[in-house]
């Protein structure tokens, strides 16, 4: 019997946001917690993010946005996953997301939103409790 596959998470920076320190910190925290992590880098379009997620066979996508475009970019990624038949890839986000925007993001399919200052351990715990390897 082979051991269960590690959870694979793609960390992405959609749009024109050029600040990636938080994304790199969370990517390293997830890696140190035992997850497999793919980081796509800056300035990724929703289409590029979804293509990478499907190609890398990830279980979840973690999005980071500090530029205020989360209300369009995050739901667009969920839409594209559905179009590709990959709606079983969970999407969560973090960054500068006003509290009042979170309900609409949740309705669009975003599973969780982490605010600045969220301890890495809290995000790791959420992933362990809510994301399972797809295969």
List the helices and strands and how they pair.
Layout: E1 8-12, H1 21-32, E2 36-39, H2 46-55, E3 60-65, H3 70-83, E4 90-95, H4 102-108, E5 110-114, H5 120-130
Parallel strand pairs: 1-2, 1-3, 3-4, 4-5
Describe the structure.
By secondary structure, the chain is of the alpha/beta class. Helices cover 40% and strands 19% of the residues. It contains five helices and five strands; from the N terminus they run βαβαβαβαβα. The longest helix is centred in the middle third of the chain and has 14 residues, at 70-83.
Give a summary of the structure in a few sentences.
This protein has helices at about 20-30, 45-55, 70-85, 100-110, 120-130; strands spanning about 10, 35-40, 60-65, 90-95, 110-115. With about 140 residues, it is of the alpha/beta class.
User: Main sheet, how many strands, which sense, barrel?
Assistant: 5 strands, parallel
General form: globular
Distance between the termini: 15 Å
- Assess the beta-strand content as a share of residues: 15-25%
Order of H and E elements: EHEHEHEHEH
- Strand arrangement within the widest β-sheet reads 2-1-3-4-5
Structural class: alpha/beta
Q: How many DSSP-defined strands?
A: 5
| Poorly predicted segments | none
Helicity, as a percent range = 40-55%
Q: Helix count, per DSSP?
A: 5
Rg from alpha-carbon coordinates = 14 Å
| Mean pLDDT over all positions | 94
């Amino acid at each position: 019997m082979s051991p269960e596959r590690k959870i694979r998470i793609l960390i992405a920076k959609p749009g024109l946001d050029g600040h990636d320190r938080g994304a790199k910190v969370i990517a390293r925290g997830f890696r140190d917690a035992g997850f497999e992590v793919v980081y796509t880098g800056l300035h990724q379009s929703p289409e590029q993010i979804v293509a990478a997620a499907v190609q890398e066979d990830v279980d979840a996508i973690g999005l980071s946005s500090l530029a205020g475009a989360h209300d369009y970019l995050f739901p667009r990624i969920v839409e594209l996953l559905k179009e590709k038949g990959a709606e079983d890839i969970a999407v969560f986000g973090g960054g500068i997301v006003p509290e009042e925007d979170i309900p609409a993001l949740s309705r669009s399919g975003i599973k969780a939103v982490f605010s600045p200052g969220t301890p890495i351990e809290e995000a790791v715990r959420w992933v362990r409790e809510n994301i399972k390897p797809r295969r």
